[in-house]
Amino acid sequence: MSRSEAMPGSTITLHFRLSLTDGTVAFDTENDPLTCTLGDGTLLPGLELALYGLRPDDEQTLTLTPEQAWGERRDELLKEMPRSDFPQDTELEAGQILSFSLADGEETMGTLLAVEDDRVLVDFNHPLSGREVVFYAKMLAVDNNRLAPADQ
What pLDDT shows up at residue 150? Predict the structure, then answer.
């Protein structure tokens, strides 16, 4: 690979879009490009693989299976919670996405599937799990200056 190609450890800047196979856009960096280092965990491994070898101005589009992206939906991530676990003054509706605190202090997102007087059904699967995702990327910059000479 040449110094201008993206590889593990490269710091890259790119625009990317994630969409469903029907064209529905799930995420787009159109107005705010992403800068990250390949291998730092910012991007899923399946997305990173699609970027290796790209140079500035190169574009890439590919369809990722659920296994390459956010995995299959898991039934054990559907949780029924008492309505009393939510603030009484909060209006809850099916389809809402809320932030939840985990025991280790981390936060996760959950989608409300059903809201009843005494219980709430929450889906903690990633919204794109179980879906094929179309990944489009346009490489804007590749910086390999921090790589060791043997890596370049």
Answer: 54
The domains of the chain are located at 11-70+129-147, 75-123
Q: pTM of the full predicted structure?
A: 0.75
Q: Which residue carries 């509706």 as its tokens? A: 93
The DSSP code sequence of the chain is --TTS--TT-EEEEEEEEEETTS-EEEE-TTS-EEEETTSSSS-HHHHHHHTT--TT-EEEEEEPTTTTT----GGGEEEEEGGGS-TT----TT-EEEEE-TTS-EEEEEEEEE-SSEEEEE-S-TTTTS-EEEEEEEEEEE-TTS-GGG-
Decide which of 3.30.565.10, 2.20.25.10, 1.10.10.10, 3.10.50.40 is the CATH code for 11-70+129-147. 3.10.50.40
Query: pLDDT at position 12, please?
Result: 97
Beta-carbon contacts of residue 9 (< 8 Å; ≥ 6 apart): 37, 38, 39, 144, 146, 147, 151
What pLDDT is stored for residue 63 in this prediction? 95
